[in-house]
Amino acid sequence: MDNLDDSGRGMKRKKTIVWDDPQINKRDAVSSLSGLYYLRSIRDGKISPPPAAKLIGYQIKEVDHGFAAFELQPGEHHYNPFATVHGGILSTLLDTTMTAAVITTLPQHITCSTVEIKVNFIKPVSAESKLVRCEAKIIHIGRKLATVEGRIKGINDELYAHGVSTCLIFKVN
Amino acid sequence: MDNLDDSGRGMKRKKTIVWDDPQINKRDAVSSLSGLYYLRSIRDGKISPPPAAKLIGYQIKEVDHGFAAFELQPGEHHYNPFATVHGGILSTLLDTTMTAAVITTLPQHITCSTVEIKVNFIKPVSAESKLVRCEAKIIHIGRKLATVEGRIKGINDELYAHGVSTCLIFKVN
Amino acid sequence: MDNLDDSGRGMKRKKTIVWDDPQINKRDAVSSLSGLYYLRSIRDGKISPPPAAKLIGYQIKEVDHGFAAFELQPGEHHYNPFATVHGGILSTLLDTTMTAAVITTLPQHITCSTVEIKVNFIKPVSAESKLVRCEAKIIHIGRKLATVEGRIKGINDELYAHGVSTCLIFKVN
Amino acid sequence: MDNLDDSGRGMKRKKTIVWDDPQINKRDAVSSLSGLYYLRSIRDGKISPPPAAKLIGYQIKEVDHGFAAFELQPGEHHYNPFATVHGGILSTLLDTTMTAAVITTLPQHITCSTVEIKVNFIKPVSAESKLVRCEAKIIHIGRKLATVEGRIKGINDELYAHGVSTCLIFKVN
């Protein structure tokens, strides 16, 4: 992030996002041996994360069968008009982590998408909140549908937001 | 957006986000004569939108008492691993528009924040979807709480997502 | 409803619920020519409503393609500890009406069940509220899933509760 | 439950609900030394449960600070047209248990009501399901709002439904 003087209205801020061709992300996702393998390959830096991960800035930290954890360093570029992180950024982090928790259990050529998500916002996040961590685990998974829950917490275990979502499981080629 | 050759893994993409000091956004928000006046000032380019609006790329198009409409040009930088717009981006657009619809009715020094949001995803959005428009209107507003609903539609009126949220109304100085 | 003296703790109240063999309800539901035909047959008194309708006391008033309206006379037997109608009774009325709105569009041997429901409670209902009416209409219906919204209002159009739900569509024999 | 012959359409079923004057329930609720004391008094049979508890048939089994467990014996009178327990009955059980979990933490003259509830239905419940148990625990409680989650499980720990709700905390006299 750079600060640019714009004389009078304070310093302008700037951030550059770089991402890969999304068709490569898609090819990587579809060709992975399993959902867990795919997510671990991103975590280990073997394949690149999708553009939205670069735009928002979250990173996979842990994935296991039915479980995922992502982290985000909150920044000013995430702010709403009241100088705290926009709830939509937290929803995005929850959606990502909850979907990932479901994907960890799926074999190759099976994936899922979010049918609906519900998020409760408990406490504002700001750049001073340091790193926040979102953990999600599957509640129930059936043949067609899965439900999953997630929580965003800070370094001292304070709760910022929690969510639940319903995912549809389907074939992809 | 620029494309950079990274030899072999396709072209890298790049986008630079520029925003103002969020303390200026906050001062503008708090000092506005009313919520409606504040949102209209952003729409008319008199004051700058908050950083999240620059990061995600949505813009206010219309605001009236109990109603708001925002637009977003979907792009590749919004994509999840399956080369469609991440649901979290749509949740952010809905959250923004629904909160704005509530704010249109609030006097100076009264604002609201999202207690919880619930979003249903109906159809994937991609860069080929052209401009999408989110409209929100208040369902009910009381002294402490408001409920509001929103829908994201495309140019041909196809439905992409819909949501409902509960907002807490409070004083701010 | 009868009142019985129980000497000292006020009058005891009593209500007797009568219903039909649920296997008959099921046979009626499955053998109906269409969902709309089935619901109209209940509305017109040609076949009997399911036990839950008798227990809670709601009645079909109107059904059309993608739309349903049910009514409920709130009573003391619906009360929570604070002498207003239990939110669960309102959720049941919304769930019933929203599911019915989806069923109106389904042919014979296709039905739906509620995947998830979300209800906001706006204003308490009591026996003094007179008749309340719940109206629901489909938001979107696809091959596998439908979303639907509903509102409970009173005689003077005051809003008591509103909801949205996701239904799964499937074959039944 | 009695069965009555109605010649030809199978046996009619009958159930009689008996409850107390709801103003007594309200007086008991308001005058209790604390929320926990009030719920324990119902559990121990010292004061009577509200009418809705009698109508639906659920019973308090356990209450502790931030936690509640209720049980319900599913019966035919809870059935929807497909001869399984109506989702609204499960929503009522969840709403009751989740609200009770919040009430366990509140002092005299402070209570809460459900702002909104969200329920996912996982597996149908029928009379053959035997007793189902709903457990709820607080996720977060603040000065104005609390969030709470609950799950309905069977005897063998199978999951039937789960929910989350937001409650508003307020004074009552």
UniProtKB/TrEMBL annotation, chains A, B, C, D:
CC terms in the record's Gene Ontology section: cytosol
Domain Thioesterase, residue spans: 83-156
Domain of life per record: Bacteria
Example GO molecular function: 1,4-dihydroxy-2-naphthoyl-CoA thioesterase activity
UniProt KW keywords: Hydrolase
Protein name listed in UniProt: Thioesterase domain-containing protein
Organism per entry: Desulfosporosinus orientis (strain ATCC 19365 / DSM 765 / NCIMB 8382 / VKM B-1628 / Singapore I)
